[in-house]
Hints:
This protein is an alpha/beta fold and 199 residues long. It is elongated, with a radius of gyration of 19 Å. Strands 1, 2, 3, 4, 5, 6 and 7 form a 7-stranded mixed β-sheet that branches. Helix 2 (90-102) links the parallel strand 3 (81-84) and strand 4. The chain is built from 5 helices and 7 strands. It starts with 7 loop residues before the first helix and ends in an 11-residue tail after the last helix. The protein is 27% helix and 23% strand.
Amino acid sequence: MRWLLPRLPAFHAGSPAIKVSVRQTHTPESWLDLPFDVAIRRGDQPSARLATTTFLREDLILVAAVRSSLGEIDRLGEMPLLEADTRPGELSAWLVAARTRLGEQAIPKRGRPTRFAHFYIALEAALQGQGLLVAPSVVVGNLVDEGALDVLFPQISVPGRPYWLGFDPQGPKVEAVQQFSGWLLETAGCPASGDSAHS
């Protein structure tokens, strides 16, 4: 939603004959049972049925709405923490890294964070000034650039899970799929060789 869709017009301009239709899936869905030409997923890769290539890697950062962000380390505890069920463990990982870098007393311990079922809901809450959110820079980078979000403690980030793309190398649209996949890799700044059938 925030990385691919803003970049799709550039692909359409360069490859007008290939029409791309994006279908978003939700966590409980069995996405392998849905029809697709190219899958873009985060986390573990599926079975050997697909040729896959890692093309994005996350850095997790702490963000807050600009109007409510707090630069002072000793006031961090005044802001609620937000967390999405679809991204378990990311808030904890960032807090561990922050305490390691800044010291145990610098990052106050808090009660349970406010939880949301999906990341995009937690992100909207952060944009509305409801608290602090650990988020992948690749997803929220445009919001930071536009001035909607501030990065707190920019010196602290932790690695998140990789994004990968996959397709059936025996599929009926393999030429168009390979062209689209190559564009994805190039746009993400990946080497053309990748680690699958693109070499």
